[in-house]
Amino acid sequence: MKTKRMVTLAIFVALSVLLHWVESYIPALLPIPGFRLGLANIILLFVLFYYDGPSYIFTMLVKILLVAAISSGFGVQFFMSMGGSLLSMLITLLLYYVIKPSIYATSALSALGHTLGQLFVYALFFNSFYIFSYLSILGPLSLVTGVIMALICAILIRRIPTSFRKEERVRR
Questions:
Q1: Residue 28 DSSP class
Q2: What is the pTM of this model?
Q3: Which of 27, 83, 115, 161 could make an S-S bridge to 142, C-beta 3.0–4.6 Å?
């Protein structure tokens, strides 16, 4: 990995950790346990659609580890986050490389995959598969927030100066 790219990805990791932290201080818009907006996904989507899949994987995994090290620790919450992130990553990369849908469909299905992954890990830890009934509430919310995060990301990508985009294309 070239130095400039590594530094850029480190900045994106820091931004995603910062957005995750900021999101924890936003009062819940809906009083639904386990519901979060997923602001850090704006950065992850940007990395995927502006750079590539390996950069996306790197950014996501380092973000998960840093968030766990800084705030939640490596308990059940970490494993739920990891399970959701891994399923989300798998879905995202399959969509991105195989089906190639829009950023909106990719983000929405990725958010839904994250929710499914978290519920699956919860069911394994607590031996309670009734948790999947909660998908009827979290599923639609995940789809909506996924589309909103994609909208913000698409706006950011369009706002990048053309000189920077040309320089990045040459580097790739």
A1: P
A2: 0.86
A3: 115
Which region holds residue 73: left if phi is over 0, alpha if psi is between -120 and 50, else beta?
Answer: left
Q: Which of 95, 93, 105 is nearest to 147 (CA)?
A: 105
Write the CATH number of the domain with boundaries 3-171.
1.10.1760.20
Q: Where are the domains of the chain?
A: 3-171
What pLDDT tens digit does each residue of the chain (172 aa) get? 588 888 989 999 999 999 999 888 887 666 777 788 889 999 999 999 888 899 999 999 999 999 999 987 888 889 998 999 999 999 999 999 999 989 999 999 999 999 999 999 999 999 888 888 888 888 999 999 999 999 999 998 888 876 665 555 544 4
